């Protein structure tokens, strides 16, 4: 998976900043983006983005309630709940909270939301002590990296499944970034197609120490095993714990453009000329597929097609080309 390998190699998220600055300086530098608002939206199928500008949080809608994948910083919990409500969902309907990894920027709202909803918290087995202690591994006493401790209701290992209504997620152990780092896989309906979606935990070094006094025993071997496993994974849609892992903002902008074109096509008076009907169809197709990796093979082609679609749609609406 070329895309997944690229994400694994994106070690810039934490490491250079951490080496050059103190942890306090680093957190101050990233916090603006991490806590900035982002408009929630339907990402693909029954998966919705409800995170901030710099931290990804997802809601999965099932036939029996909601699954929340991660939260963000503790101070963003109100914003996350607001995003869920903006989409028309009820926070009270969250039945499961799944965790990718026990770092403060993905766990800050667990205690509050769990208390409010009674949802079951599910996490990788080796991250359980971190979540229940509210600390960063190897830096247990550093309050800057701490978060509200929360009880884990169920731990998972490789291949374990979590099912709610019509939706099942499978856990994959991808340790290194944290000892219990867990990537979650599920299938979504994308039009008439089934697509494999992976919520990849992370492969970055973060604030971890790999040499000298390692963050935890065996961390380097864990990273190596995770890199090898990730290379062999076959997925269609890559999602991650931070939007930049999969260029979310760019894809969302493209999705919005396609949606605007589709809306303007729909607003045109009927009946449209055959050429305009084709434009309308291809616009809605490209909107659905912006988050599909399989289609990245022809991404450049689609981008150029989108340009043509946009120009043609403008022609169709501007010239009143109906009937
Ligand atoms: Zn992390
Ligand atoms: Zn993170």
Brief write-up:
The protein is of the alpha/beta class. It is built from eleven helices and twelve strands.
Tell me what the structure shows.
The protein is an alpha/beta fold. The chain has a single domain (about 15-255, about 280-320), classed as Ribonuclease Z/Hydroxyacylglutathione hydrolase-like (Metallo-beta-lactamase, Chain A), CATH 3.60.15.10. The protein is built from 11 helices and 12 strands. It has helices spanning about 1-10, 15-20, 25-35, 75-85, 105, 110-115, 130-135, 220-230, 250-265, 275-290, 300-320; strands spanning about 40-45, 45-50, 60, 65-70, 95-100, 120-125, 155, 160-165, 165-175, 180-190, 195-200, 235-240. A 7-stranded mixed sheet has the order 1-2-3-4-5-6-7. It has a 5-stranded mixed sheet with strand order 8-9-10-11-12, with no helix packed on it. Helix 10 (about 275-290) crosses helix 11. The longest helix is centred in the last third of the chain and has 20 residues, at about 250-265. The protein is globular. The site of one zinc ion has 5 residues, from helix 5.
Element-level helix/strand string: HHHEEEEHEHHEHEEEEEHEHHH
Label the overall shape: globular
The gyration radius over C-alpha positions equals: 21 Å
Bin the strand percentage: 15-25%
Biggest β-sheet, characterized?
Answer: 7 strands, mixed
The CATH architecture classification is 4-Layer Sandwich
- Indicate the structural class: alpha/beta
Strands ordered across the widest β-sheet = 1-2-3-4-5-6-7
Average pLDDT taken over every residue: 84
Uncertain runs: 5-20, 274-287, 293-323
